[in-house]
Write a structure and sequence with these properties.
The protein has 258 residues and is mostly helical. The chain has eight helices and two strands, in the order H-H-H-H-H-H-H-H-E-E. The protein has a two-stranded antiparallel sheet. Strand 1 and strand 2 form a beta hairpin.
């Protein structure tokens, strides 16, 4: 009888561990997907505040937007697009194409759920910013420091982003096949969490720089450019000399460090 109880306990304990593992994988990926889509939304909100017209967007963004718009029209019944309808879509097409409005829809850049491995993140961000900027992600802290500390900085793209890609793979295995037979250890899962967090923080920094790049391009066309005589990082101070320049209170000054 005792052996039967032990066997029953072992079976239940094993099932509980599997369910706990499944919930952690699904939860971690769900948070990451929500983070990526929030980044897309916030980037577009900031972007349309900076540029004055659709023509001011990167050429690639202009070229790709209407294809993305058409693709979105076929997905309006999806739950994630419940705040859109055909009327909103048609009005957006009219204002961007005919009125040169920069108010693009962030939803055009979202991907199908469950697919945000690094390759899809790369495609999404590059479409969003209009250039291949995400290749520079490993240069941003804290991901840069993590890759160096774990001897991953010299690896190819597959090696650098394996932990994120594994998370997406495990999530999709669970979604399609249910509870897996093999599971990550608690230590391996915690390492995955640390990696995803550092990836996310570095991506925020990269997108912030992309918005600064857009601001710089706009100012470059309309403002006086002066080369600083010196800069200090902590605290950040820049000195410059320029004749006949008037600085007003609360005026925006940008310093670009090449």
């Amino acid at each position: 009888k005792e052996k039967e109880y032990l066997k029953l306990f072992s079976t239940h304990y094993s099932n509980i561990k599997r369910l706990d593992y499944v919930s952690k994988i699904i939860f971690l990926y769900g948070i990451f997907e929500q983070f990526i889509e929030n980044c897309i939304k916030e980037y577009v909100v900031e972007l349309v505040e900076i540029v004055d017209s659709f023509d001011d967007l990167e050429i690639k963004v202009q070229d790709d937007y209407y294809k993305l718009w058409r693709d979105l029209m076929g997905k309006l019944e999806w739950a994630k697009y419940e705040d859109l309808n055909e009327s909103i879509m048609i009005k957006n097409l009219y204002h961007t194409k005919c009125k040169n409005s920069p108010n693009i829809l962030y939803q055009c850049f979202l991907r199908n759920g469950g697919n945000y491995n690094h390759k899809k993140v790369m495609e999404t961000i590059n479409a969003l910013v209009g250039r291949d900027s995400i290749k520079n992600l490993p240069q941003y802290d804290p991901l840069r420091r993590y890759l160096i500390q774990h001897n991953m900085d010299k690896l190819d793209e597959n090696g650098k982003y394996k932990l994120l890609d594994d998370l997406v793979m495990y999530r999709n295995e669970i979604a399609h096949n249910g509870v897996p037979d093999s599971m990550l250890s608690d230590i391996e899962f915690r390492e995955m969490v640390h990696y995803v967090l550092k990836y996310a923080k570095s991506l925020i920094s990269l997108l912030s720089d992309e918005l600064m790049y857009v601001r710089w391009k706009k100012l470059q066309d309309k403002s006086q450019i002066v080369r600083p005589t010196n800069t200090w990082k902590r605290p950040f101070i820049a000195s410059f000399e320029a004749p006949n320049i008037m600085l007003e209170q609360n005026e925006l000054i940008m310093v670009r460090n090449n």
